[in-house]
Amino acid sequence: MAIKVAKNVLFCAMVGAGVALVFWWISPRTSSTALSLSAVASGERSADIFGSTNNEAQAGSAIAVDRVLSELNQAFESDWQDAGLSSASAAAPLKVIRRLTLGLSGSIPSLQEIRVLQQLPNDQQVQHWVADLLGKKRTSDFLAERLARAFVGVEDGPFLLYRRRRFVDWLSDQIFEARPYDEIVADLLNDDGLWTDSPAVNFYTRNIIPDSDKDNIPDPILLAGRTSRALMAIRLDCLQCHDDFTNEVYLGDAETTRTGVQADFHQLAAFFSETRNTFFGIGDVKDRVIPYQYKLLGDEAESILQPRVPYAPELLGEEGALRQRLTGWMTHRENRPFARSIVNRMWAIMSGQPLVDPVDNIPLNGPFPAAMEVLTTDFIDHGYNLHRLIHLIARCDAFRKDSRAAFDIEDAHTQAGAVFPMTRLRPDQVAGAVIQATSMALIDENSNVLSRLKAFDQLRQFIRRFGDPGENEFETRGETVTQKLLMFNGQMVSERLKDNLSVSELHWLSPDDKTTIETIFLATLARLPSEVEAQYFLDRLADTNVRKKRQVADIYWSLINSLEFSWNH
Amino acid sequence: MSINPNQHPNCGGRDHFNRRNLLKLAGLSGLSWLTPLATALAREAEHKTSAPAKSLIVLWLEGAPSQLETFDPHPNTEIAAGSLAINTNVDGIILGEGLAQTAQQMDSISLVRAITSQEGDHKRAIYNAKTGFRPDPTIKHPSIGSIICHQLNTKADSALDIPRHISILPSQNAGRGGYLGDRFDAFKVNDPVNPVPDIRSRVSDKRASRRLESLEFLDRQFLQTRANNQTVAKSLGNHNLDAALKMMSSEQLDAFDVSKVPDAERLAFGDTAFGRSCLAALRLIETGVRCVEVTLGGWDTHANNHELQAGRIEILDPAFATLISELKRRGLLETTMVVCGGEFGRTPFLNPLGGRDHWPHGFSIAIAGGGIEGGRVVGETNPNPQKGEKQPKKLLKNSRPIEDIHATILSQLGVDYEQELDTPIGRPLKVCEGTPIKSLQSEG
Predict the structure, then answer these.
(1) Which of A330, A359, A375 is the last residue of a domain?
(2) Are residues A185 and A321 in the same domain?
(3) Do A533 and B221 touch (CB under 8 A)?
(4) Strand B291-296 relative to strand B55-61: parallel, antiparallel, unpaired?
(5) A316, B226, B324, B330: which has the highest count of C-beta atoms within 10 A?
């Protein structure tokens, strides 16, 4: 009996504490000193970003960052002026914060986080939010998945030889620890060992074709295609079968480019000709030379093709194994296409649209957006620091532009960054946003295990039915009827609206209907309702014929299914 | 022909490139017979006259069935390893002994018995079999059903409330739209004893109506501020909302529901999820759906091959045979192609566990309907191969690569299988790399 009473008391205490916490999140903050973001409190990761550890050096770095930002903004302005484009005004900070959260963690900010951020002055919110996100594992997990799609795709590889999860976890750790990007890529291209102990080698084992007569050889052709697109942002695919007859692939030298020929592709592939999968994992054959042979179009027999890089051959070293030489060339400071490719990809990850579209095809001979060149130079000069790159993108004017404008918005405006591009959320973002919108508290790696497991399962099932765009996640997509039906009647949305205290008990936790409506808008759209919207839903809630609990769930449903929710803008 | 990512899914791309347009162009050229236009014209004419099929049912046997226990038995040989065969209603054609009902429909079915592919891994081979292309990290090819839906668009297609490309009992490998876009993905449904997923509102009609009213209000507010955004305004339309609502209330959904079908008719397909799904496929085709894929998994018999294959064949036989006979009875077989097979075959020799392993060097696919003559066999596998044969494909007679099945299907459906499509990145790609198997086509 005593145990039963104790259990009941404990249960009531837990529920009471939960309710008090939710009530606290719902209430707008008035005290400016009550809370601080982790980034503000610690500052450690910020120090990394600016490359210094003491206050004085940080101040100097901050000035240097401001100078780069100014240069970046001027570059955008200059491009807009040259193209005769007007630009949009700045978006509200919460809107930028929603973009950043979608772009860096695949979700939307929680009500809890919004309330904390609102304590900061408007001009500091975004900067602190970026630092805060970069200090969280969910951000590096999300970014790692995006990069992994470029490096190894989304499909399963050969059973036993390929551990995609391990590869993504490794990438996530590298990003979290702010390891320089050139070092990450060096591991990717040059690491040896087993796919479990040396996760980077999954880049190679992914490209082994099982049950074929070459099941110990990572396919050089697949590797060449992947390497050129993911690491150089050059699409050499056409050259696999024939010379370029469409004048779309320019190689050679940035100043004196030439059209690509079939041999370009296969000579890049030749760098992988000595790589094998053995008992000890991925490694290179060292005791003999294995020539790369291929029958080029029009030839009558196979010929030996020597390894050759598709451009800037002067950067290629002559010592070391083939993969080692390729790695040295790829990560050479003067190999700007390598740096440009990740700058373009990171811009796309964060905004939904690359600076040069498509994300993996930047013409070697340009023209390049001026801002891309500023970012590329800074990226190389500051040790290929991904965190710094993310900070610069988040803080530049173009990223903070509104997606609305008083003038007619054409493709040219969004392509040039004069207006923030509107892009449809990807399935992982939709699912992440639905899960977060229906929970007042943040769901991340620190949430309780049950919440995380439930969210993970819901996310997985939702994406499976919604349809994963795979590697081509930055391509323009339309919404399908299946997706619409899933959002209307699907299990996840229904469960999230039914089983969450944040939704079902919101009406009595809120002091009044107005707060209820504001809370739902903040939780779903990261903004307050307009007067018209507030009045519309106040009228709805005033209808005493329908239970308020249901009305709240219905408002949530409508907001989650709205166009505004399903777009990044 | 290029693909506009914003093209309405019901916009028939093929219609823009029709015979009349070509003739106009040819007239201007004067010497059209010397130009590629002449070829295009000839091909167009050829496809117009030889398009008996309107729709496709794929019975997808995932995991790879053994040709030796199904469509290509070699009884009393070492490779049969004890498997028996039965006669069919066509002289000279035998089937695995478990396919007794299918044997009675053999005069409507043809077999391609020496198919080859270069993929011996399930995932890669499934991609290869479903798209006709080997996996390529740089591009995702569309599945055969997606190509058909992209290429064939008539008024009847536009009038359909339900999706035109459907996968029943899907695995993780249901047909995808690939570079054509996810609007050409197959709509996935499970065992027809269950309701169609996500189709019924989870709240009362009254609540659903209130929700939709609020949604309309919110979207109107949002669109008002985006009216001047020319780039996205067209994408922000609500045609999918309308399509979803139309589907939710459509009477055509009845085609999925086999519970109202008399027991005798339903059970003729077998009292299994696969049997019920084949019945649903038949009803969907009757309703106007273009392509239905029904999956039967569990064929990957690396151990205990004979027993496990027999279990699968027991499910396949009544479903396949009844599907063919019902299509015939309803007068739909002439316009509906039925293709039955998996991603590859299984090794001629048993392994120490009594299993058969992966074998892309000569396997079988059954094809019926849609202008395919029944009772024919194309290709021949060797009944006495040697263990450890280094070049097993050389032992085949009249072998065909798997992409020839695609070319045959597309050809029968009147799709120009030789055309190239511009992918969204501007890279032109052939719809198909195969050649139709002419000897299967009905004469006249």
Answers:
(1) A330
(2) yes
(3) yes
(4) parallel
(5) B324
Count of domains for chain A: 2
Would you say A67 and A381 are in contact if contact means Cβ atoms under 8 Å apart? Answer: no
Which fold, B13-22+37-193+258-440? Answer: Alkaline Phosphatase, subunit A (3.40.720)
Tokens of A121: 């002055």
Quickly state the pLDDT bin for A537 (edges 50, 70, 90). very high
**Is the sign of the CA dihedral B402, B404, B409, B415 positive or negative?**
positive
Provide the Cα torsion A179, A180, A184, A190; round to 10°: -120
Burial of B251 (0-12, 13-18, 19+ CB in 10 A): exposed
Residue A347 lies in a domain: no
* Number of CB pairs, chain A paired with chain B, less than 8 A apart: 173
Quote the tokens at residue A226.
């992947």
In a domain, A313, yes or no: yes
Classify residue B373 by its DSSP letter. Answer: P
Best of A231, A480, A494, A546 to substitute, by most chain B Cβ atoms within 10 angstroms, is A480
- Sequence ranges of the domains in chain B: 13-22+37-193+258-440, 197-251
Q: What is the pTM of this model?
A: 0.80
Q: What are the C-alpha distances in Å from A548 to residues A489, A504, A512, B111, B209?
A: 21, 9, 12, 64, 16
Domain for residue A222, yes or no? yes
The one-letter amino acid at A212: S
Instruction: With a threshold of 0.95, tell me whether the complex ipTM lies above it.
Output: no
Print the domain residue range for A291.
Answer: 138-147+158-170+179-330
Calculate what percentage of chain A has a pLDDT beyond 70.
88
- A210 at the B interface (CB within 8 A)? yes
Q: Please give the Cα distance from A442 to A460 (Å, whole number).
A: 19
Following DSSP, what letter does each residue of B17-48 receive, concatenated? G-HHHHHHHHHHHS-GGGSHHHHHHHHHHHHH
